[in-house]
Structure formats: structure tokens, C-alpha cells
Amino acid sequence: MKVAKLYSFNDIRIEDVPVPEVGPHEALIKTRACGICSGDVMPWYIEKKAPLVLGHEPAGEIVETGSEVSSFKKGDRVFTHHHAPCFRCRFCRRGDYVQCETWKESCIIPGGVSEYILVPRVNLENDTIHIPENMGFEDAALIEPAACVLKGLKRARIRQGDTVLVIGLGVMGMINIMAARHLGADRIIGADMIKYRLDKAREFGADDLVDVSAISLFDGVREATRGEMAELVIVGPNSADAMMQGLRCVSPGGQALFFTPAKPGETLVIDPNKLYFSDINIITSYSCGPSDTADACEMIGKGIVSAEKVVTHRFPLEKTEEAFRLTSLPCESLKAMIVFNQAGGAL
């Protein structure tokens, strides 16, 4: 079978590897679609994992199950998460699934941009879900990124009537806009410097836009809110500077959600009394867990987020590097999806 393997940020190869053998408690998926994650095009983040088969947003069809598998069968259409928790440790009992050691150590084999994926027992049992009949594979491949968004909004305790500022209008910013509206945001402000993305944000429900190439973020938000600023500020760019700018735009009693990590070595210098006396909270949100993927599947099933809306480019596996490069550039694109030939390779 063919896979797309990254050796460095500028070295992605299409290789032939054996189809994994299926153990008694495992399943083999024939991949139908897999998104390219915007987080995977941060060089410092992806290269520390190299070499690796790219992709962790897959959806596909089960073609083989182990002898002890009873919850899934051949022909089932599924989404599987690349990590899965144990459900037993202290972190899992609190719902902090991403801190679970089993979650951190688990994986799909060899990765998402692969003609076939082996789903180990813990992933199969603890975070693989059936795709509804009315949901296509491309929609299902959005479950993982949508789940990351929903987890962040839950952690930030978004409320009915909130004014929400979304900084950075790539695909995750767009999903944040759609999900925030779904969860009750009254006013949504989108901020970016690329006209294409600003226009798309308006199409997806943003009430106000701040073009940061023409006006400072703070001034733009102040004008849009008549000085009230935003109860929730979602910071998308992986930049400490963006985080600091976002904090300036939080209204008293509000929250800043750091949706992406900063670059290694960057630091924040914060006046703690400004946070304290204004009752401003900083919230972080990393990845997602099983409850989030279930909620994301439901949201996508309702059409709130869909491939039709956000997938702007589709590529075959052989052109994964082109999809990767496109995702890394601030251009007229949102989501790049790897789609697989329905005939595919032989088992």
C-alpha cells in the first residue's frame, strides 16, 4: 500500500509499505479521506516527530476485523481518532483525556495519509465511531478538527449572548466561527489580513471583520464593539505576540482562549494585576477527546460544519506534498483534503 511519509518539512515521499496484519482486537480501515491539519505545517512541531506518515484526520471503511471484535464489522463506515484514552486513570475520570498516558502513547498505524490504517484495540474501542448514513467521508474527516474546536469552546465556557473575537481565519478559525454561533454567540468578530479569508468569514457568519493589515487589532475591535471589547477571544496564530494582542481585546470578566501553542522559546510577559482586577482568564485547549468527537459528529451531521463549506482543495495521495505546501501558505484556500480512489490498492 502507498503512504505519504514526512522526513522533514521539505521532504515528503510517497512510499510503498506492507498492509498491516490485523490482530484479534483490531480492525483495518480502507481510507477514503484524510484532512491535512494546519498544526502539521508548523515546522518545529512536525519535524520533531519525523519520520512519520502524515495525517490524523481519517475516515474510511472497515475491510477486516479481528476475531474478538464485536462492535464493528466489515463494511462499517467509521471515523477513528489517532489517540484514545484508557477511561480509568485520574485524568480520564476528570475528562482530561489528552493528559492520559494511554492517550499520549496510542496511535493509528501507520498514519492517516495511507491507503489502509490499522486501528489498535484502544483506539477501536475508545474513540472510533460509526459515521451516520447521511454523512460523507469528507464530512467525517472533519470530525477531529471540529472536535478540537468544540473542546476549546467548552473549556472557555462560551455563553449565550457573548461577543466572540476569532483571531486568524484559516480553516480552524472558520470552524470556530460556525461553532461559536451554534453555541449561542451573539456577535462574532473575525480578524485576519487576507481578503479571501475575511470574505469567507463574513459568509460563514462573522458580524464584523478586522483587517489587521489596515488597522490594529485593538483599534478594530474597539470600534466594532464601541469600546466594550469581547467576552471571548480565540487566538489562532502560533505566536506569543498574537496572544498578547488577543489579551488586550478581552473585556473585563472575559477570557482568552489560546487555541494553538506558541513557537518554542517565545514567552509572555503579563501584568498579573491587569488580569486579576479585570477578572480575565487565560484558557488553553489542546486536541480533543472521545466526548468531543461525538459532539463534533453530531454538529457535522446537522450541517453546521461541512466539507462543502470548508474544503477548498482536494488531492490524491500522490500529491500529498502539494496539499501540505498549500496548507502552509496564507493564500486563497481553507482546507486541503486527501481523497482516495474508491477502487484503491489491493489488500
TrEMBL record:
Cofactor dependence: Zn(2+)
A Pfam family reported for this protein in Swiss-Prot or TrEMBL: ADH_zinc_N
Keywords associated with the record: Membrane, Metal-binding, Oxidoreductase, Transmembrane, Transmembrane helix, Zinc
Ranges that cross the membrane: 164-184
Keyword Transmembrane: yes
Keyword Transmembrane helix included in the entry's annotation: yes
Enzyme class at the top of the EC tree: oxidoreductase
GO molecular function: L-iditol 2-dehydrogenase (NAD+) activity; zinc ion binding
Enzyme Commission no: 1.1.1.14
Cross-referenced PROSITE patterns: ADH_ZINC
Residues covered by the Enoyl reductase (ER) domain: 7-340
Classification via Gene3D superfamilies: Medium-chain alcohol dehydrogenases, catalytic domain, NAD(P)-binding Rossmann-like Domain
Family of the protein in this entry: Belongs to the zinc-containing alcohol dehydrogenase family.
Protein name per UniProt: Sorbitol dehydrogenase
Lineage: Bacteria, Pseudomonadati, Nitrospirota, Nitrospiria, Nitrospirales
